Amino acid sequence: MNIQHDKEQLTKQLLDWYKQNARVLPWREKATPYRVWVSEIMLQQTRVEAVKPYFERFIATIPDIPTLANTEDEVLAKLWEGLGYYRRVYNMKKCAQVCVEKHGGKLPNTYAELLELPGIGAYTAGAIASIAFGECVAAVDGNVLRVFSRVLVLEEDILKESVKRQYAKIVQMYIPKHESSAFNQALMELGATICVPNAAPRCNICPIADNCKGYQCGKAHYLPNKAAKKTRRIEKKTICVLRYKDKFHVRQRASQGLLAGLYEFDWLEGYQSKKAVSEYYKMYVVKNIRKLPDAKHVFSHIEWHMKGYLVEVEMPCEEGVWCTLEELKASYAIPTAYKAYKDALEKE
């Protein structure tokens, strides 16, 4: 089999395709360093369509780095509510504070300096440096790893950090000196829209198929290779939404660990019966208990399997916060894990 691969031709094909097919995205319309940074952090493990409204709202509320550096954590959590991985936005604040202290309230303009900032890794630094500052440097995310594993039939485990560094060196050799922004975005766009995951690349409409070794030898659908994920630990919980008159009870989680600093409904370990829940909260004089929907939420390493109850009480507990549904929606960041229960309250 005569397998074709012309590096220069592939680069030209990719850039020509991107110029004609790039999606219109809010962070691309005005690619300032700050906007690129915010978008890249939000897009980590989150779909583009889901990010759009969050990005617009975040930028409108926090338009620059000095503002971000001085924004309260609870405001940040509320703006981030529903995106998940809240540590991202807390690290952004730390990064902003360093930028105010050391860089005049702006992001530094080189890959090397960006890499020194908290919460900014190799990919994010590469994206900001190339897209916002035009530095000729690779930005290798999951999309790029997938594209190049297929283009060059690279069969190493792409989850290994050593392999990611190897890919960055390879991609670097393809970047046109004065078109790093377009090239990196084109690669990401190709991976997001055509060279998609889960053995489903759309090779029949791929602009670089005739320079893709994986397509030509029939291996594209089998790549990339990833080590099998560890089995998630399952935690069973009984969510107890306490209600006193027109107010609901929430409490703030610890400042460290999973869902740090966010607000949540009360819960008990394991699956508890209505009778057990009534007994647990008897000190608050339980007036009525009603079943709420079952729910499941998947984190990277654990799964919460939840049963729920709405527990109406005649005496409010002193700990935590009692708030109306409107206050809850406006001021308290509730993790997506509790979405089924928050939604149930809106139907009351």
TrEMBL record:
Residues 42-193 form the HhH-GPD domain. PROSITE patterns: ENDONUCLEASE_III_2. Pfam families: HHH, HhH-GPD, NUDIX_4. Its EC number is 3.2.2.31. GO terms for biological process: base-excision repair; mismatch repair. It comes from the Bacteria. Its cofactor is [4Fe-4S] cluster. GO terms for molecular function: 4 iron, 4 sulfur cluster binding; 8-oxo-7,8-dihydroguanine DNA N-glycosylase activity; adenine/guanine mispair binding; metal ion binding; oxidized purine DNA binding; purine-specific mismatch base pair DNA N-glycosylase activity. SUPFAM superfamilies: DNA-glycosylase, Nudix. It catalyses: Hydrolyzes free adenine bases from 7,8-dihydro-8-oxoguanine:adenine mismatched double-stranded DNA, leaving an apurinic site. Keywords: 4Fe-4S, DNA damage, DNA repair, Glycosidase, Hydrolase, Iron, Iron-sulfur, Metal-binding. Binds 1 [4Fe-4S] cluster. CDD domains: ENDO3c, NUDIX_DNA_Glycosylase_C-MutY. Belongs to the Nth/MutY family. Adenine glycosylase active on G-A mispairs. MutY also corrects error-prone DNA synthesis past GO lesions which are due to the oxidatively damaged form of guanine: 7,8-dihydro-8-oxoguanine (8-oxo-dGTP). NCBIfam families: mutY. This is Adenine DNA glycosylase. It comes from Amedibacillus dolichus.
